[in-house]
Amino acid sequence: MTFPERFSDLPEYAFPRLRKLLSASRPGSEVINMTIGEPRHAMPGFVAEVLAENIDGFAKYPPNEGTPELRGAICDWVSRRYGVALDPETQVMALNGTREGLFGAAIALCAEEKRGQKPAILVPNPFYQVYAVAALTAGADPVFVPATAETGFLPDYAALAPDLLDRVAIAYICSPSNPQGAVADRAYWTRLLELAEKHDFRIFADECYSEIYRSAPPVGALQVARETGADPERVVIFHSLSKRSNLPGLRSGFVAGGPACLARIRQLRAYAGAPLPLPLQRVAEQAWADEAHVAASLAIYQQKFQLADEIFGGVPEYAGPEGGFFLWLPVADGEAAAIRAFEATGVRVLPGAYLGRETLGGNPGAGYVRVAMVAEMDELRRGLTRLRDCLYE
Ligand SMILES: Cc1ncc(COP(=O)(O)O)c(C=O)c1O
Q1: Measured in angstroms, how far is the CA atom of residue 370 from the centroid of ligand 1?
Q2: Eight-state DSSP code of residue 266
Q3: If you measure from the C-alpha of residue 162 to the centroid of ligand 1, how many angstroms do you get, rounded to a whole number?
Q4: How does pLDDT run across 303-323, given as a tens digit for each residue?
């Protein structure tokens, strides 16, 4: 019996790897888990009611692409949020969480060859891990591009060699980014769209943290594409209710973009995807239509940004996130810091190297730990204060 070789270089997933790292250690105090990005603010109040009202829907196979009502609610949200009018019939599709969409869309849209060569897929380094697996599955070379303090924590794709760029089929970009919390501004998107046009590739914009930001709502990739008159087929956006609405267990998101891209994504998903159960589509429809719960959650995150700035303000090289809910804290060695923090204080954080890949310049996550600011305020304050005292005093 043989197994595929294409995944043989995949490192173990970050969380089991962390469990192993800490398996011989004992917590120095009450355990506070700040590793996983699982939102813990209140979910919208209407979830149970909408679910109960639509419970009969579990007796039916759900529509693969999403109900017309859900697609309508998503398009209304995109229009309110970004000023972009999408056709619910052809430009949007419901997802069972963004992660599967980020994976499936690469398989649906990455051609077997690009200009007669094996295609390449650009991945910011460090990154949300599904991008690399998607590239391997699609038969492309994942190319890990540093997103470090020197590049404003976003990848500088334009600095890559032109012949490599000519091989690129897809460029993943995450804004606000996980793990660094960097936000791509209008100028960044405009340059990336120009690069995509010049070298004929698509941009996969993972915007699932778009509703968690410090001051102004981040601009979106489709928004800038529309403003600059770029070809909408160049951009595919991915959004989620996991972070926006504190519903990670609902497994609900969407993908949107040009009709040609969406037709292919929909077709592949009709064969192989798992549609979101109907009662959950009804909940998702309500969630996209409501902003009150989003505003309430955002206000708490904004207090958390302030709290983090107060606690870590004196740390050299500390840069508070512009968006998302992670702190990306500079340390000498992320693994050593994670062990020290756990043994001295009980706080669990993720070594940054587990989110990055070793390239010629080393692993750009190695000198960081990632800290999820998802706990309620008192626990967060205790955890962050202990981390500062342990890692920086
Ligand atoms: C950057 C990023 N993209 C996508 C996802 C997937 O979100 P979901 O599948 O819950 O919609 C996550 C979840 O942590 C993430 O951090």
Answers
A1: 15
A2: H
A3: 31
A4: 999 999 999 999 988 999 999
